[in-house]
Amino acid sequence: MQAWDQLTARIHELDALGGAMALLDWDQQTYLPAGAGASRGRQSAALGRIYHERFTAPEVGTWLDALEASSLDRVQTSAVRNARRRYRRATVLPGRLVEELSHARTEGFAAWMKAREANDFTPYAAPLQRLIDLTREQAERQAAPGQHLYDALLEDYDPGSTIGELRPMFERLGRELNTFLDALAGRPHPAGFDALLDVEGQRKLSERVLTDLGFDRVHGRLDISEHPFTVGLGTDDVRITTHFHADNFLAALGGTVHECGHAMYEQGLPAQWAGTGLDKAAGMGLHESQSRFWENFIGRSPAFGRYLAPRMQGIWPTLAVSPDTLYGAMNKVERSLIRIFADEATYNLHIIARFELEVGILEGRLQAIDLPAAWDDAYRRIVGVVAPTAKDGVLQDVHWSGGAFGYFPSYTIGNLYAASFGAKIQEDLPDLHERVAHGDFAGILGWLREHVHAKGHLDDAPVLFRGVVGDRDPVEDMVAHLWNRHGTLYGVQRPG
Ligand SMILES: [Zn+2]
Prior knowledge:
Layout: H1 2-30, H2 37-56, H3 58-68, H4 74-91, H5 95-118, H6 122-142, H7 149-157, H8 163-184, H9 199-213, E1 220-224, E2 230-232, E3 238-242, H10 249-268, H11 284-298, H12 302-315, H13 323-329, H14 346-362, H15 371-383, H16 409-428, H17 432-437, H18 442-451, H19 461-469, H20 474-490
Parallel strand pairs: 1-3
Antiparallel strand pairs: 2-3
Helix pairs in contact: 1-2, 1-3, 3-4, 5-6, 6-7, 8-14, 8-20, 9-10, 10-11, 11-16, 12-13, 14-15, 14-16, 16-20
The structure holds zinc ion (ZN).
């Protein structure tokens, strides 16, 4: 099995390079001096070039050919499947296209910033059209015969997910969520929680919560950045960043818990499979399921309010806060304009609207110039709101300006997976809520470790998900969860 040894040695090397690139990026978003951008750009580009050359080298193809002709065990079969997919997707693109895409992303991001500043879509239209054309060319080259172009893009983020499966699922979810939001409309919202809380105290509490949830501080750390993110430099070095707001404690804590979910997944990936490529997430949707599970299913539950309130009192002794106040304040639901501020239910409508637009773009039915009107139309029908200006509408996300078409579904795939994991975990650990209230999260993390994290990328996420939850219906699990959680707060019941 010489080819196997050669392939795993190469993947080891590539993972080390990838870790170094991620570290440069982490540093750029946390500690890099403001004036050091140029040399950091050169460092990242140089490593990126070496990575690409080492990964797409002809010998990698020769090893994969040899392995595909050999008899392999389960781990080898999965490793070769994953490596072949990535290798094919990378080598099928001509150097000219890769360069044009990279250039168009830089231009697209700059134009998006400018358009946002002017609150006017116009200067963004041409650079966005360029990205659309190049992305369609990329998808055409990467698509297998007969494969939908959108599926060719999905494969980058969520291998195994398909438009054929997502479209009917999202349609059903959209209908159910609209019924739910209609029922809540006009009912009084639970009271908010907007006490000003000093950042030092928030930091202390975040550290405490991270430790209680199970984030391993020996193999990870917490820092501050403008936008919270998580990066795994290896399973033994996983870093979280967060951002504190003195006037919005709950949002900042929610962000930290979200990133902690991502981080604990990275820390639980199977280190014994290093070098096979299987010590990686099985998809971005599954990654997102782990962050959303902790942020929403656990972090917005009444039990978490019972856990949190006394710990807040310990840090701010004069603060008057009850578990019920926290529970209510964390679960306000209403149709909203901005995705990143949306509640647990409405969030998915934002994604369904983007999914519809992206499919239209990939199918050639929508051009950049059509997007402002198509956006408003989709929002009116799906989310039930219309943005007064472009900044609150079609210009709100960075994704398309970087050519990331096909990423958005991951967020709702994550929410759906999280809903069924939540329902299943509640069957397996009937005293789940008592555990949460007492700050005992070990059993919950242990369940996720065993059923999700430890499996790495042995199977693609949809297969892994089915293996864990059987024939559970994730749409029904999510909708039942929402009626249960918010129905109580808003005094409404699911129509029988
Ligand atoms: Zn996330």
